[in-house]
Amino acid sequence: MNIVLLGAPGAGKGTQAQKLVDEFGYAHISTGDLLRAAVKAGTPLGVEAKGYMDAGALVPDELVIGLVKERLAADDAKQGFILDGFPRNLDQARALDAALPELGVAIDAALLVEVEPEVIIERLSNRRVCRTCGYTGTSADAVCPKDGGEMYQRDDDKPETIKHRLDVYAAETEPLLGYYAERDLLITVDGDRDVDEVYAEVKERLGL
Ligand code: AMP
Which end of the chain offers a freer environment for a tag, N or C, measured as fewer CB atoms within 10 Å? Predict the structure, then answer.
């Protein structure tokens, strides 16, 4: 199954994606993770993307679309994939739709994890990520519960950037809900619940 995950930053997309990956072996294609890895490695793409990311702005479409196309062509994506954080605007959605036939695949569902903005702001302010394994936890985790690594706060999870990212989401990404609804692909789940409750509904709604 090929899934597009939609939802504001902090809605829990990454957490739900990870659970689907663990249970069903889909490839997890997170453009945020791919871009952070490029920044860390200091590649030309990473150097170009960093300024946009630190400001909470979207990285230019041509950079991100290239990254996703390359990733979708990799072998593990043939087992099914979850796109997390992509597409982020209508041009990216159209570019994705144009690229998929060449790969002989289609999107089966666009899954929206819906959470109120107030909850999002609180979640993002408290979010901490493991520097070694990327595990996402909260400020209550002194060290990573998975591997004991150092937990840090992403630069773009600082209060001044959170507001901007939510504005970008409303302006650029929310129009995608109509795009996928028109194509009868949109499934909405309430993300403001316990992680496992959300996951149970995700599976049920996807028919998994
Ligand atoms: P995320 O981890 O999905 O919250 O993404 C972190 C940052 O990476 C975003 O605020 C953007 O700067 C950049 N980014 C991630 N995915 C995309 C995308 N599809 N298009 C443009 N920029 C992106």
Answer: C
Measure the CA dihedral 155/157/162/164, to 10°. 30
Q: Is residue 201 part of a domain?
A: yes
Whole-structure pTM value: 0.91
Rounded distance from Cα 165 to ligand 1 centre (Å): 9
DSSP code string of 157-207: GSHHHHHHHHHHIIIIITHHHHHHHHTT-EEEEE-SS-HHHHHHHHHHHHT
| Domains in the chain, number | 1
Residue 162: predicted pLDDT: 92
Is residue 138 in some structural domain? no
CATH of residue 9's domain is 3.40.50.300
Q: Print the domain residue range for 16.
A: 2-115+169-206
Q: Which atom of ligand 1 is nearest the CA belonging to 165?
A: 10
> Does the residue 162 lie in any domain?
no
Q: What is the pLDDT of residues 144-202, one digit of tens each?
A: 999 999 999 998 999 889 999 999 999 999 999 999 999 999 999 999 999 999 999 99
Residues carrying an active site annotation: 13, 88, 127, 154, 165
Atom number in ligand 1 closest to CA 88: 19
Q: How far is the CA of 188 from the centre of ligand 1 (A)?
A: 21
- Atom 14 of ligand 1: nearest residue by CA position: 32
Q: Is the previous residue joined to 101 through a cis bond, with omega within 30 degrees of 0?
A: no
